[in-house]
Structure formats: C-alpha cells, structure tokens
Amino acid sequence: MTGGKSGSQFGPKGSWRPFRQRQSKLQRLSQKHPFLCVGLPFLTAVIGGSFVLLPTQQTKYEVRDKHVKTAPLANFKPAKREFSLQEEYFRMQTRGEWGEWEPKRVERPPEDEPVFDRYD
Questions:
Q1: N or C: which end of the chain has fewer CB within 10 A?
Q2: The whole model's pTM is what?
C-alpha cells in the first residue's frame, strides 16, 4: 500500500507506523495496575468462597456428629489386638506347638520348562 488513504490503518501517506489506537480508561488502568484487574478479583473469589463454604462444612460435621452419637454401639466389633511376633512366639511355646514344627520343602515344578535359559 504505497499510496494510501488517509483513513486507513497505516499512518499518513508514506508512513510505516500504525496509528495508536485510543485506549479506554479501563485498559489504561489495567496496564498500569494489573493487580486490580487480575489479583483482586481472584483474592475476592477465594476469600468469598471460603465464607460461603464454611456454613455448609459446619452443617456436614454437625450431621455426622449427630449420627455417631445416636448409632448403637452393639453393632461395632471390638478392636483387634495388634500382632506381636514375640507374643506369638511365647504363645506357641506354652501350647507346645513349637516342637511340632518342622521345615518342609515345597515341591518344585517339573524341569520341562527351563526357567533361566530364556535369555540365552
């Protein structure tokens, strides 16, 4: 576009620079202070959301506490005792089970299939 119109997007005749577009007040404000347009709405949403969720979470826990308090305890199984190797050893000795124990070899599969020769 060498000989352009004066109303085109390019500058006056022979100019290569475009005209500066006029910015609105909001655009200028957002360029000078980006926190006002991005950070402030984000923080408002996070803090406002926490205030909205607080009553719903409180209601949830109140309902759960009410349910736990009214539940009959007869349905619950007693807690199992923790397994201790030392206690089991002494228990087997006192019952006489310790002397009856003997190691038994587990039978191996037949040697028809070589297990370790796969990568040869």
A1: C
A2: 0.36
